[in-house]
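Quick one:
INPUT:
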């Protein structure tokens, strides 16, 4: 009565799970550090990267946000939203991400 035992090989390499966990951890830390502080008057806004500079400026203007400065990336602006509803209007105008301008300021100065 010999019993055959078979060990199934994992469907992906062992290092892939560790790499996936590392990437997800990095994303979570970045998301927490880039969050807009409550009551912030100035925010950094990321628009789709394929948009031209003109489209980015038009989207910010349509959301009634005053442009404080541009950055080395044309799709990233530092703006001052008009009022409390300004962040919602920026997202409706096409903004992908609204973040703390101090977190990105050192890396993306034009």
């Amino acid at each position: 009565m010999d019993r055959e035992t078979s060990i199934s090989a994992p469907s992906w390499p062992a290092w892939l799970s560790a790499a996936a966990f590392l990437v997800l951890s990095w994303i979570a830390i970045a998301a927490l550090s880039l969050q807009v502080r409550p009551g912030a008057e100035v925010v950094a806004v990321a628009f789709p990267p394929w948009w031209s500079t003109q489209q980015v400026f038009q989207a910010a203007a349509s959301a009634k946000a005053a442009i404080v400065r541009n950055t080395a990336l044309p799709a990233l602006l530092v703006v001052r939203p008009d009022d409390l509803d300004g962040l919602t209007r920026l997202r409706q105008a096409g903004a992908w991400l609204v973040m703390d301008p101090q977190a990105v300021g050192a890396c993306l100065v034009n």
